[in-house]
Design a protein that fits this description.
two-stranded antiparallel sheet; 3-stranded antiparallel beta sheet; binds glycine; globular; 13 helices; single chain; mainly alpha
Length: 392
């Protein structure tokens, strides 16, 4: 079923009462999880509904710390602040000792934990850790092709590629430039998004997940998927990373050409939503499919739309805001966890990775909670309830 702006208007919108109740519920879950997940972190995804306790590893632990910060901002309860600051110590240790950081996800990890700590409390440890993370990310910048290499050892031929997710790692570079006065971080970020959008955006406004760059010439070579259904399909979360990533770079750079990019990527996402407005994990699938959903993709997309509507003209801003209100109502209704006995997560029905003939994934976190789904859902609720100053 193809959606349009007009068809989406036929769905109920989230009103303040609905959003506030959802936020109260989310905060209740964060509070209940705190005893287990202060010294330890939740696993990237839940297993049969429940996160397990892990060390500070993988690309996903910052989302949990970010959720704690959002709970702190909402309640002003010092218990949340204390727990988040314990985790900032862990992030400082992680970057000082280079634990599981041979990849580009420094923004996901350190913006929501350490930049947040610095912005909310003036934490010097948070600032130090985040600046070290920005330096570490900057080492992945490849002048030949002007992009940040996503995975593997830098400069390795088999790994010479960018991925759309990286747009969310750029804000830590913009922030580092603001804090240090050194323009080079922001310049790398700006170069990266320019290269990335030249590569990943297709004519029909869908996006590639990953794109290889020719190591000899520095020119875009070819796109392949990692987590999508096909090399040429639109992985729902990838499309959502595009929406929010473009909005975040617009926030820092105010490059007017990003408005058109934002509309193209977002309109594709909206057009391909199924009947209940909760996207399947890849836009190859539509209403009636038995494939799993990825609620986290919708949560990310809503955050991107809510950021971008601040900069759009009144008419367009209103149109996208109305869509966001309806996507949020669908998420709250179909995916908001209200029962700690069924799950210790906040947003149900996410998919981390799903195997397919053309991707290289094995099933992981299928129809489960994941930490980024929880975080972006809370961020979207926060944005709807307040004039939120972002951690990004
Ligand atoms: N950034 C990895 C993912 O979205 O699964």
């Amino acid at each position: 079923m193809a959606q349009t702006f007009e068809s989406v208007m036929g769905y109920p919108a989230a009103d303040e009462k609905m959003v506030r109740e959802a936020m109260e519920e989310a905060v209740r879950i964060v509070r209940a999880d705190l005893p287990v997940f202060t010294e330890k972190f939740p696993s990237s995804n839940s297993f049969d509904g429940f996160y397990e306790a892990t060390e500070n590893v993988e690309w996903t632990t910052g989302f949990w710390t970010g959720a704690i910060w959002l709970a702190y901002e909402y309640t002003k309860d010092e218990a949340f602040k204390e727990a988040a600051l314990v985790q900032v110590d862990s992030f400082l240790d992680r970057i000082q000792n280079k634990i599981d950081v041979n990849h580009h996800d420094m923004g996901f990890l350190f913006s929501l934990s350490c930049v947040a700590a610095y912005k909310l409390t003036g934490s010097e440890k948070g600032k130090e850790a985040a600046l070290m993370a920005a330096d570490h990310l900057a080492e992945r910048y490849r002048e030949n092709g002007k992009f940040l290499q996503a995975w593997g050892n830098v400069g390795e031929a088999s790994e010479y590629r960018l991925i759309i997710d990286c747009l969310l790692n750029l804000p830590i570079l913009y922030w580092a430039s603001e804090v240090t006065g050194e323009k080079r971080y922001a310049q790398m970020a700006e170069n990266h998004i320019r290269t990335a959008m030249r590569c990943v955006l297709r004519e029909d406004d869908s996006t590639y997940h990953t794109y290889f760059i020719d190591m000899e010439t520095g020119e875009p070579a070819y796109g392949v998927t990692h987590q999508g259904n096909r090399n040429n399909s639109a992985w729902a979360r990838g499309q959502a990373w595009g929406i929010y990533g473009i909005a975040l770079s617009y926030h820092y750079l105010k490059d007017e050409s990003y408005i058109d990019l934002f509309c193209r990527v977002t309109d594709f996402f909206i057009r391909h939503l199924p009947e209940d407005l909760v996207p399947y994990w890849d836009f190859d699938f539509d209403t009636g499919s038995t494939e799993p959903r990825d609620s986290s993709a919708a949560a990310v997309a809503v955050c991107g739309i809510l950021e971008m509507v601040k900069y759009l003209d009144e008419e367009r801003g209103k149109k996208y805001r109305e869509v966001a209100d309806r996507l949020m109502a669908a998420l709250i209704t179909h995916c908001g966890n209200r029962d700690l006995k069924q799950s210790n997560g906040i947003l149900l029905h996410g998919t981390y990775a799903r195997d397919s003939k053309e991707n290289t994934c094995t099933n992981r976190g299928v129809d489960e909670c994941n930490t980024w789904g929880d975080y972006f859902y809370m961020e979207a609720l926060t944005r709807m309830l307040s004039d939120w100053k972002m951690y990004w």
